[in-house]
Design a protein that fits this description.
It is a single chain. The longest helix is centred in the N-terminal third of the chain and has 25 residues. Helix 4 runs parallel beside helix 5. This protein is about 35% helix and about 20% strand. The protein is α/β, with parallel strands linked by helices and about 525 residues long. It is built from 15 helices and 22 strands. Strand 2 and strand 3 form a beta hairpin. The structure holds NADP nicotinamide-adenine-dinucleotide phosphate. NADP nicotinamide-adenine-dinucleotide phosphate (NAP) binds next to helix 7. The site of NADP nicotinamide-adenine-dinucleotide phosphate (NAP) has 28 residues, from helix 7.
Length: about 525
């Protein structure tokens, strides 16, 4: 009998009624579970989270919330193997790819637990230093950050079912907000297990975490001014959600993490075979093949000085030829299938679109025949990067990237990168500090994060595709204009900044920050 995933609302597990969606194993196409939210009372789910979960979390100090988040991290760690197995079955992930998601979830929770511990036994965060407002310091101003009184509604993409829940929840919980998670239906098998593990471990107060497995239904029509919507997914869905009348009229805070045409820039100083060169190749191959290229941070545009193009192309082709695509359960496999049938169709169509202005130099634009949604890595070379449009505008969410030859100047590199109109991350691989400074200055404002790859940091590098909890994730423009994580910065989305104006002695007595631990 097929497994039916349940929703976790009002502190109870409830199956959806009516028509359920099928969840598949992308390796075989077989149905592995069904899920739906029919019959779920969305308004009641939000009210329970607000009233029960919110009150419990606000009654806790930052240190106590930190302990709670650490307990959540440990509970997931205890079920790590089971979660990895589900990632293979329902996401087409190799074990290594599955670890990227699951360990990312565990690690991000642990990082926020540590931040909570450091904030200590307080419930209010100060925002900056106090300021004198009157003729004497008696009239004093101090900005404070207070938890909003609503629910953090988290709508996530299919590609990170564990990390997606955890990275958003870590920030919301530490800020003092309950979470209602709505993972993508296609890979909700893992997301459901994450929530079930946390519910069974009883590490969270009632109402701190709710889950919808399936369509959001009329959920967003019940959001109010104190609620927060954090969305990750395609730009089209992001646009649809952020322009909902209810959200606009009630000024519901919305954060969007969307598409991104991330780039990497190889500096003209980098010699073939050098440490920085090898780091560059490794980053490109990792981003093309890890999770079959289904990472929002993956490198889609590879900028290479014309003088180095032939060498880079030859080295990348060699490395791509060694990538074994196949059953992700097989340990010899480096890359599994795409996660869904529609991802496969989109990847095929996307490569064909890019071929209007670029040549395929490795791989095939066609899906692999037979069962499963397999699509091998495809490397293209742009015929005229400055005149091209599709490569700067169309995100092919799969193992696909395009070489863009440039003249080796920082100005041209930055100009090309900016054609992406805002990305999550770009990397600059160079040991020439002047070049790095010029590129960073020229393209920084179009990015949420810049990764500076060099020989000195190469041994420690996680690669640009890895989102770390202590630096921000998000980007302007096409990337959605959102911002998540970044250590304590990530709490701001869930807090209200309130300026207190009054007697200095009273403000400092009531809200003085305790000495950090
Ligand atoms: P998607 O189709 O936009 O779906 C994202 C989420 O939105 C899913 O949970 C989906 O639910 C939900 N959704 C869709 N329509 C909705 C509606 N009318 N009301 C409420 N919720 C709705 O995106 P995806 O295919 O899962 O993910 C791929 C995209 O996400 C790529 O473009 C990628 O770049 C982007 N992404 C961005 C980031 C980032 O951090 N910037 C990270 C990962 C992925 P259902 O599944 O139930 O339809």
């Amino acid at each position: 009998m097929t497994l039916i995933l349940e929703n976790y609302v009002g502190g109870r597990w409830l199956p959806g009624t009516g028509k359920l969606a099928d969840l598949h194993n992308p390796t075989t196409g077989a149905v592995v579970a069904r899920a739906g939210t029919g019959g779920i009372d969305m308004k009641a789910a939000l009210t329970f989270a607000r009233d029960v979960g919110g009150a419990a979390l606000r009654a806790m100090t930052f240190a106590q919330r930190g302990e709670m988040i650490m307990a959540a991290s440990k509970a997931l760690h205890a079920q790590r193997d089971a979660l990895l197995d589900l990632e293979i079955v329902n996401g087409g992930n190799t074990r290594k790819d599955a670890k990227f998601d699951v360990d990312g979830a565990i690690g991000t929770l642990a990082a926020y637990a540590e931040l909570g511990k450091r904030l200590g036994d307080t419930t209010v965060l100060l925002d900056g230093e106090g300021v004198q407002l009157g003729r004497t310091p008696r009239l004093w101003g101090q900005h404070v950050m207070l938890p909003r009184r609503g629910v953090a509604v988290h709508v996530n993409a299919f590609n990170f079912p564990a990390w997606g829940i955890a990275e958003k929840a870590a920030c919301a919980w530490l800020a003092g907000l309950p979470v209602l998670a709505k993972p993508a239906t296609a890979t909700a098998l893992v997301a459901e297990r994450v929530v079930r593990v946390l519910a069974d471990a009883k590490v969270l107060p009632a109402g701190a975490l709710s889950l919808l497995c399936g369509s959001a239904g009329d959920l967003l029509d019940h959001l109010d001014a104190q609620d927060v919507l954090a969305f990750t997914g395609s730009a089209d869905t992001g646009y649809l959600l952020r322009s909902k009348e209810r959200l606009l009229r009630r000024s519901v805070r919305v954060n969007v993490e969307a598409d991104s045409l991330n780039s990497t820039v190889l500096g003209p100083d980098v010699e073939p075979g050098s440490e920085t060169w090898n780091l560059f190749l490794r980053d490109v191959i990792t981003d093309m093949t890890q999770k079959a290229g289904q990472k929002c941070t993956a490198i889609r545009r590879i900028l290479v000085p014309v003088a180095r193009l032939a060498d880079v192309e030859a080295d990348l082709k060699d490395r791509l030829a060694a990538v074994k695509v196949g059953d992700p359960a097989d340990e010899a496999t480096n890359m599994g299938p795409l996660a869904t049938r529609s991802q496969l169709d989109d990847a095929v169509a996307g490569v064909r679109k890019l071929m209007g202005e670029a040549d395929v130099v490795f791989g095939s634009p066609d899906a692999r025949p037979g069962a499963g949604w397999f699509f091998g890595p495809v490397l293209l070379r742009s015929r005229d990067p400055l005149a091209a449009t599709a490569v700067h505008e169309h995100e092919v969410f799969g193992p696909v990237s395009t070489l863009l030859p440039y003249d080796g100047t920082a100005a041209t590199a930055a100009h090309l990168v900016r054609k992406g109109e805002g990305s999550l991350v770009a990397s600059v691989l160079s040991d020439d500090r002047d070049f790095v400074r010029d590129v960073v200055t020229e393209m920084g404002a179009w990015h949420g994060r810049l990764y500076l790859g060099s020989a000195a940091m190469a041994p420690l590098s996680p690669g640009p595709g890895t989102v770390l909890p202590l630096t921000t994730h998000g980007g302007p423009g096409r990337a959605g204009g959102g911002e998540e994580l970044g250590g304590l910065r990530g709490l701001a989305l869930y807090q209200q900044r309130t300026a207190l104006e009054g007697d200095r002695a009273m403000i400092e007595k009531l809200f003085a920050a305790p000495a950090p631990k």
